[in-house]
Amino acid sequence: MMTGFRLNLSPLKEPLGFVKLVEWLTAIFAFGCCGGFSGKNIISIFCGNDRNETLNAIYQYPFRLSHFPLIDKNTTLCNHSVTTTHMVGDSASSAEFFVGVGIVCFLYSMVALLVYLGYMHVYKDSDFGPIFDFVITALLVFLWLVCSSAWAKGLQNVKDATDTEGISGTLALCKGSNITCEVTDFANMRTLNISVVFGFLNMFVWAFNAWFVYKETRWHSRKFSSQPGPGRQQVPAPI
């Protein structure tokens, strides 16, 4: 059996190769929209005496909010002494898990495309290649489901921690009877919302691709080869 590289672009015209190319692109959008995020919320503090103060809440991936200060050092706001205060919350585990799965899928898609386009003759002549491909594809479907669900919850936690209610609960100053805190300018989280959408989209795309990978395995071929052909009748065994 020849095992050398043979460039053949025809797999891209078939679902097996074309869907793998789509997976490569959707993985880039998923981890790119999440991993590159940096945002800033502007908090207005209304002191109740026609005097206002402003704070900036700056945060970014991987969203360890407790590492980002609302008040960097001891200062005075609305004639009140305020100590160093950090935001509350940590969504790093779900965000990093999501980005990690995306990067793994990005790399695996590239390797699989290389095999499809250059070593398809080896891939189809062996049992190991299609079965390994199917098992990894099925595993990645599950990982996309888990990491997308976890990141969707983590993103909601980030939104809750950085909105008016979350900031007011973090700053002791905002609990005063005549002092009101309000987030007047929110960071644009459109890319984070898009990352969640692409996470679940990846799950469906990989699940769709799993069927075409399964068709390349011996399990599928044996299933159909064992079925009697049309018009064939079973001959009764001699007595």
Automatic annotation (TrEMBL):
Subcellular location(s) of the protein: Membrane
Keywords: Glycoprotein, Membrane, Transmembrane, Transmembrane helix
Domain MARVEL: 11-218
Record's keyword annotation contains Lyase: no
Nucleus found in the keyword field: no
GO cellular component, one term: synaptic vesicle membrane
Membrane topology: Multi-pass membrane protein
Top-rank lineage group of the source organism: Eukaryota
Chief location: membrane
Transmembrane segments: 21-39, 97-119, 131-152, 194-214
Listed InterPro entries: Marvel, Synaptophysin/porin
Coiled-coil ranges (or none): none
Family: Belongs to the synaptophysin/synaptobrevin family.
Name the UniProt record assigns to this protein: MARVEL domain-containing protein
